[in-house]
Design a protein that fits this description.
Largest interface: A-B, 34 and 34 residues
Shape of chain A: globular
Radius of gyration of chain A: 18 Å
CATH superfamily of chain A: Aldolase class I
Number of helices of chain A: 12
Oligomer: homotetramer
Number of domains of chain A: 1
Structural class of chain A: alpha/beta
Largest sheet of chain A: 8 strands, parallel, barrel
CATH topology of chain A: TIM Barrel
Order of helices and strands of chain A: EHEHEHEHEHHEHEHEHHHH
CATH class of chain A: Alpha Beta
């Protein structure tokens, strides 16, 4: 399913003026992403503001999203919570949706389980999921780290298809070398996009690809041709703007840029807030744009 | 409401053999806590496994808990989530329960709002809550830290009554000096119980007090009499056992001790797990008990 | 030797206009410290810019300092380096100086020995030192932490008299409870001055006592009388100014204040620099003084 | 001078049975390194136990080393200390030695200068050095980090030829993009060897190259041919053994392996210690060797 899928986008959830999901805007954004290098999607991840969606909204969103995206493009839907029973309930529901290929299950946040608890959590979910699950390891958000050993053990579960990993490159290298053959590994950190591919990972689940997809595609394609210098230089230029998209709570910076580009993705749901004017100016600066670039309409093709 | 309330217990939620809330066990535990020094409760905090309770369970739990506890003992009920709208909905419901004096609202976990978002989050909840709210700042679980300045600003909101704070003593000292007169501040870190009181905080919201309440009471009472040496020595002896109660995901170690003491609090809900045999033995050692102490029945009075 | 010695000053080394040690200024400062609460000295510690003194300067400084200070006031002289052989050589020399009561030996910095190497290092130095040695554990400067267990083992060496410790209060409590009876323990962190005393440590080796000695003395004396509230409030007010004295490389902020107070302690030796004007203004603000307070002459009695 | 110099070795200093520098062993090791991929040397760095050498020993070592190494192979000699005046004195002396091409100057350790102090420190040394200097930024040892901006400013100094950098890849990318044209940048972290080259750095100053030089050479050569997959796989296999060489204080693990391989490099000087038997067994395991491999004689060609 993930063959040649190096660049996936963790897509934002557009909201309309009434703070409801804006499906036409989502369709437009999906098409833009596919045209600029994206080869798969994670919908309803943190970037998609999933903590601020109701269960009913998630089911509707994933159902419509599954219809929007060509069937050969993998769709991974965010499901996991910090409650095993609840995660199982939603996984059964979401995994049955047509067009959802994989359920994304995060390491439980806030209640801080240990490795034994994580192993049990993912094993129980995998046992009942109608589709394969992907695990999501992001210690900076969850307060706990799933250890390499735990991941390797879980990688042998045939219904656990892979991992979205936020960690060091040392961990990434270890995982690539030790996980099961069938298991795919994506970095969840945009600045590791190139290095992950080089050490044998599958690629990146990206936020920056909403905006810099063409450059990321060019980077990967240069690498495949053996032109590591061009690839390396592109990563160097991408890294700071990738960082800038996290200088305020994500996805608010990404949405600010997309809105200026005319994608009409709306604001964020509380406790996240849309950027205010000084924040937009600071973001513009960090992206190498004129100070007021995000206050007016902006080209869909940004330079590095 | 919090006058003379120095020691509060963040009480565990007992489960029966069917993994349902065990109210008789809870009543027994409440009485034990009150007899051994506790002067207030937080029910449905992390220690109470609130992420693993349904909304209906929470409402029932808080309703019955409000009836169990004498009316002069403050009851703080855990409500907050990482979704502002959802937190508002539940706060209205829980705040209307008889016997709930305060709603506890955590800094949003996992989605990582910034200071502006936190300020808006707590302000909106406070605006509609039927009872005063207390904020809960615990960066190790939430991935973000509410800054001192933000707390000071929020302390002037008359419907925000106080803070449960997990941070450095430097931060505690700053907050005590700068927050509003009406605002109460409790440490959420047992090893800071003594220092917090010395620098002018209100006390501690404790896990260890389930088990070491008498010694904690003795420590505070020694301090009040000016006997800082006895108080200091007690803290020295308490600190390692307080730490031991977090050597596995909380509240599993506390429940293991309480079960051995005959309180019948049951296991934990997934993704948390009850301690297995080697873990119980390691915990016993860390508490200065014989290796198999937690495998058999244990005195309700542990020595330091 | 350390009975009733709760407050020691890690005294700065004054330099004259030619960047040579200014002994008259040192004498004046010593007298000031003794009058304002100091009961012992560490000379030639980091605060004394010992890395920027030659061996000959150190020997002269310690010889003269031994003569300056009343014989009942303990003098600890900084000796240790990250080279065991060299530390032994200097310890023999400095330990023979009249008036030097103790040699201070730092955990080796930069070359990052392990616990076994630290144990051997201190054991070999103690074996040949003419006077007892005190160890100095400051991971933020040395890049390695001497573990509690290693310290406890070394505390049983009769020629190792004590420890200057920069760590958590948990570590301090453990050490107080477990180290040898004869062993003294001082915090090297001013904000821990009060807590260290409360949990049974001997006191603090202070930088802030150059300037806020009276308040620190008052804090300790209040504690001894059982007035923990006054002591706690003083610590709350001292903590931020203690921190401010480290907002630029120490001892440059302390020297800036002392110079404004007329103590004529001069600048710093490279790679440390005297504060420039904007830095003096920022420091003044952090100390609660008027913006230009450190540009002109300043009272020797600062308020909190 | 550094054209095509991608792999440099920070060479250990061999000691004989009397703990004196063993020059025949050093010559043998130099030849081995050159044969297995090394294209330049840093002598008297931390790996060379420079904190444990006297000034006279350093001068003798660098003089003889300059003669050992072919003149087209760059030699960088460790000189810097945490005392600017002393660093200047030694730089003048060492920079005048025939065969020393560059003086390595570390960011001052232990006394923790700020950016202004670092800038002044390096500028003053560069002003008097007979040969170009290279700066060494290693926060884990020094306790302070030289900031990217400071490095960029210093890179424009014509007598500062480059940097040995231990930091994140984000910092490396920034520096490569922003430093002066003439300025060379090497990573001081073996696990970054490949990534550094890809993003445009000059290469790595390595410890692992004593032992795994052939594989590191093969890795770089694969990259140059565009075969990123082979290069990436080699890095994956090298990273854990590179880490193992730092599982005890460096260079003791490297010396243990070299001794088993017959290079006769001797022990370490205090406070560093030669590995004991259990440490050698643990290291062997971490290197993928039989448990007792380092207790007996070992092949000069280790497999990954």
């Amino acid at each position: 399913m993930f063959k040649n899928v190096d660049l996936m986008t963790a897509i934002v959830t557009p909201f309309d003026k009434n703070n409801q999901i804006n499906y036409p805007a989502m369709k437009k954004l999906v098409d833009h992403c596919l045209k600029t290098g994206t080869r798969g999607f994670v919908v309803g991840a943190t970037t998609g503001e999933t903590p601020e969606l109701t269960d009913d909204e998630k089911v509707e969103l994933y159902t419509k999203f599954g219809q929007m995206v060509p069937s050969n493009v993998p769709v991974i839907a965010g499901v996991g919570t910090n409650n095993t029973k609840e995660s199982i309930r939603m996984t059964k529901k979401v995994g049955a949706i047509k067009g959802v290929d994989v359920c994304l299950e995060v390491v439980p946040y806030y209640n801080k389980p240990d490795q034994r608890g994580m192993f049990a959590h993912f094993t129980q979910i995998a046992a009942v999921s109608p589709v394969p699950i992907m695990m999501y390891n992001i210690p900076g958000r969850t307060g706990v780290k799933m250890a390499n050993d735990t991941i390797v053990k879980l990688s042998h579960n045939p219904n656990i298809i892979g991992l979205k990993q936020c960690g060091t490159m040392e961990d990434m290298e270890y995982l690539v070398q030790h996980c099961d053959q069938h298991f795919v590994i994506y970095s969840g950190e945009d600045p590791q996009a190139l290095f992950t591919k080089i050490v044998g990972g599958n690629g990146v689940i990206s936020v920056a690809s909403h905006i810099y997809g063409k450059q990321m595609r060019k980077m990967y394609d240069a690498l495949y041709k053996g032109d590591y210098k061009t690839a390396g230089e592109l990563q160097c230029k991408l890294t700071p703007v990738m960082g800038a998209l996290f200088m305020y709570p994500s996805p608010s910076p990404t949405k600010a840029v997309l809105n200026a580009q005319g994608f009409d993705v709306g604001g964020c749901r509380m406790p996240l807030l849309a950027l205010n004017k000084p924040e937009k100016q600071a973001l513009a600066k960090a992206l190498g744009l004129p100070q007021d670039a995000l206050l007016h309409s902006l080209s869909k093709e940004l330079k590095l």
